[in-house]
Amino acid sequence: MGMRKASGGRREAVTRILGIETSCDETSAAVLEGSGDDVAQKSLVILSQDIHRVFGGVVPEIASRAHLTSIVPVVQRALDEAATRLEDLDAIAVTNTPGLVGALLVGVSYGKALAFSRDIPLLGVHHMEGHLFAAALEHRDAVPPFTALLVSGGHTLLLDVEAWGKYRLLGATRDDAAGEAFDKVAKLLGLPYPGGRYIEQLAATGSSKRFSFARPMVRKNALPEDDDYYTFSFSGLKTAVLNAVRASKDLEVDKADIARGFQDSLIDTLVEKTARAANAFGRERVVLGGGVACNRTLASAMRARLEPAGVKVFTPTPRLATDNAAMIARAAFFRFERGERSGLDLNAYASSPIPGLVAA
Ligand code: KG4
Ligand code: ZN
Fold it and tell me: In this predicted model, what pLDDT tens digit does every residue of 196-228 receive, in sequence order?
């Protein structure tokens, strides 16, 4: 436990947590300091593995090896930038699920070794709970109760968050995740990997009039008790795009309009289901997280739909919306202050439910 100057010159106890994230293709470390929901980011280092672009997707074996060579300097740099020594830390937080097991294991093993050698508490963090906390790093009001939409490369989760650690899972995807749909459609249109931001750029130049794809799982007369009321599904939309690509006489001419039609349909679905959830639970805040939350068209569509109804929408900046260790350390603050600790037998898991689920 460290001390920091509070207003009026008093000194108050603060907690310092080192976060480590290696679940996919970024090696990241961050130091956060504070208490409760008053947490400051002292440093954040993110090393993205560009090599996967060559293969058009993340190659797990290459990701693990790249984490191995970068984890030590990345953590060291995060400590240096925060002017923090290992012995100043109160805990080491590391993503241990979900993700690529080989990649996760690098962070988990290194976190364990640091914790053991300095006798510092260790905390395993669920990657999606990290995404849930990202907006709170920048926006004081992005705290529960709120409706959360987490949209990343591997997951699409619609949650009602009554309090930190109390998550009601309303909807998930039956097939592709939202980011995965962006990436697959980008590939169909010949765009680089990961394709989300290229689709967004291309769609901005396209017309919304030419390709109108069906809104997946959105029926106007749907009722909250229907089992698809909050559920997502994007594989049908992807197939519709594939058919449009195949039918195109000149893809160079059509691709911006196809990208626009695809993005309009996907965003409409995300906005509709999120609005349903905020409305059903009477929430006045909506928090977005995950890489797809970088999409400005999504954020503005969400605001256009919800703000007239008095609902405020919070999105993290792109650096915090995509995979990073600051969100992992931020989620760990909550769990650490509740007295939670992981043992040195902490393991890595490819998938597991977000902790704190309450009955729907
Ligand atoms: O959260 P994230 O960094 O990694 C995972 O945990 O999966 O999310 C990565 C995903 C990729 O699918 C990427 O294409 C998508 O986020 N993404 C975007 C945008 N920027 C990143 N999707 C749509 N529009 C964007 N501007
Ligand atoms: Zn992620």
Answer: 999 999 999 999 999 999 988 898 889 999 989
Q: What is the DSSP string of 80-111?
A: HHTT--GGG-SEEEEEEESS-HHHHHHHHHHH
Quote the CA–CA distance of 286 and 146 in Å, as a whole number: 5
From the alpha carbon of 180, which atom of ligand 1 is closest?
Answer: 12
pTM of the model: 0.96
Decide: residue 98, CB within 10 A, 0-12 exposed, 13-18 middle, 19+ buried: buried
Distance 128 CA to ligand 2 centre (A): 7
The backbone torsions φ and ψ at residue 356, rounded to the nearest 5 degrees and listed phi first, read 85, 20
Question: Before 353, cis peptide (omega within 30)?
Answer: no
Using CA positions, which residue lies closest to atom 14 of ligand 1?
Answer: 196
The minimum-distance atom of ligand 1 relative to the CA of 194 is 14
In contact, 136 and 37? CB cutoff 8 Å: yes
What DSSP designation does 172 have?
A: E
Token code pair at residue 126: 């669920």
**Span from the CA of 290 to the centroid of ligand 2 (angstroms):** 5
Q: How far is the CA of 300 from the centre of ligand 2 (A)?
A: 21
CB contact at 8 A, 118 and 135: no
User: What is the rounded distance in angstroms from the CA atom of residue 103 to the CA atom of residue 99?
Assistant: 8
Q: Are 289 and 270 in contact (CB under 8 A)?
A: no
The residue assigned the tokens 């954020």 is 299
Query: Which H or E run contains 96?
Result: strand 91-97
Region 37-60 average pLDDT: 93
